[in-house]
Description:
Helices cover 40% and strands 18% of the residues. By secondary structure, the protein is an alpha+beta fold. It has one domain. A hairpin with a 5-residue loop joins strand 1 and strand 2 (14-17). The longest helix has 11 residues, at 20-30. The chain is globular and about 25 Å long. The mean pLDDT is 54.
Amino acid sequence: MVETDNFYDPNGIACRHSWTTLQMVCRRIFLRTDSIEEFCEFLPE
């Protein structure tokens, strides 16, 4: 697995990502679901 940075959204939820675009994606998904961590784990490497 590729090393990723931890992105903390305004609500304090950590999201692992490798690209800036994914930051916005994870943030938007968080606004719609409580399983943001699961979603981020599903992101492509």
